[in-house]
Structures are given as structure tokens and as C-alpha cells.
Amino acid sequence: MLRLNLAFALALIAAPAVAAPLNIATDATFPPFESIDENGKLVGYDIELMEAICKAAALDCNIANAAWDGMIPGLLDGKYDALISQLTVTEKRRNVMAFSDIYEHPVFRFVAKKDAGLEISPEGLAGKTIAVQTGTPMDAYVTKYYPNSTIKRYDTGSAPYLELTGGRADVHISYQAQIIQAFLKSDSGKDFELVGPELTGKDAPEFGEGVAIAINKKNTELVEKINGGLAKLREDGTLEALNQKYFAQ
């Protein structure tokens, strides 16, 4: 009996440990990139992309909704292994987080009521109210370049649109694709339009280098695995297919 117990104990020690699923956070208030459908399921471009990366890299991933303002602190504290939520790569963020290869180069735009006659410039929006999601590249941009405007900040990506349609904000600034797909194509956005120039990281560093997956800086192995999965999606056409599915106009 002693020999059997010893053999059993040795077998348990020799058995490979089962790795816990990776905890990946997203702020599901930003369609068509990430949102929750009527069945309570996470859906969107980033969600499908992350699922495809995990499959290609043979990673066991659990993607969960999280509050925007708690995502980066959660990554730094080890609560999350990675973040996918249209996170732009900036020098400030690189100081505290690692990033995957960039998978998207977004364009940013202002949106306002049709025929509002607004000049999109620091002078033209002086005294006007700009609605923006807090802690985003758009927030950093208007804070720096529009000091004479009233800036209203919100915790979610959807709240600024309520301010805009309710007449409590004159303009909102966000990702052009998000404005078009989630707002202008909806009934609530029919009286609004894109205004001002297209903006990218080439116009202002606040907009960053592009969009990538954020990863804890200590986990270099995970960075390599995610990049490997992303590379496979580029090669087999999955990434391009997702772009066509969500953003072809």
C-alpha cells in the first residue's frame, strides 16, 4: 500500500500543470470594436480578432468586460494579462506597458449636428462644448489644443453621443470608423455629420502610433506568442477579412 501511495504521489508531481486561462479585458462600450449584444455576449472587431489570435497562438483566453478607467491599473497589478480595447500606442504608455505589433492605424474625426456651421479649430470651438471619453487619445488631444473650449469627459465610449444628441455638447471627437458605424448609421445619428479634417498620429502625437494589444511588461513570452498569432492572421487573410466585415463602406 505504501508503494502504491508513493507511486501515486510521484505521478501527481510528474503530471504537467494545467495553465490558467489568460485574463483579457476590454471596455465593451465602443461598437463596432467591442460591445455587448442583446444576449449578453461580447461582440465586435477586437473581440473576434483576439479570439482568432488566441486560437492561432494556441492560447486559452478569457475575454471579459471591464471599466475603461480600471483596465490599465488592472494590467499593471496583474489582474489582467492583456488588454484589447482600441488602445493606441504612445510613448507614455510604452513606459508602463508592453504592446503587440500594431494591427490598425485609426483616423480620428469630430462629429457635429448637420449645418451647425462650426469651424473645427481652437479658435472656432472657443466657448463651445466638446464631449469626449476620458483617458483616451481624443481627451489628450482636445485638452492640449482646445484650451478655450469646455471639455466634458465621460467614462464610457457611448456617453458622449448622448450629450451630443441631447444638445448638451456641440461636438464629439472619436475614431472615424466608430462614429460612422455606431452612430451616423443609426437613427439617432441621422441629423449629424463628420466635420473637420481627418486626424492621425502624424498630425498630433496624442493620437499615437497605431492600435495594439497591451500586455504586462514582465510577460515577454506572451508578447511573442500574441505577435506570432497576429502574424498568422495577416498571412492567412483573417485580418483583412475582419477589416472588410466591419469597415467596408
From TrEMBL:
Domain Solute-binding protein family 3/N-terminal: residue ranges: 21-248
Signal peptide segment: 1-19
Cellular component, GO annotation: cell envelope
Location in or out of the cell: Cell envelope
SMART domains tied to this protein: PBPb (SM00062)
Entry superkingdom: Bacteria
Entry-linked Pfam families: SBP_bac_3
Entry annotated with the keyword Coiled coil: no
Swiss-Prot/TrEMBL keywords: Plasmid, Signal
Primary residence: other
PANTHER family given in the database record: ARGININE-BINDING EXTRACELLULAR PROTEIN ARTP, MEMBRANE-BOUND LYTIC MUREIN TRANSGLYCOSYLASE F
Record-stated family: Belongs to the bacterial solute-binding protein 3 family.
Protein name as it appears in the record: ABC-type amino acid transporter, periplasmic binding protein
Organism: Paracoccus aminophilus JCM 7686
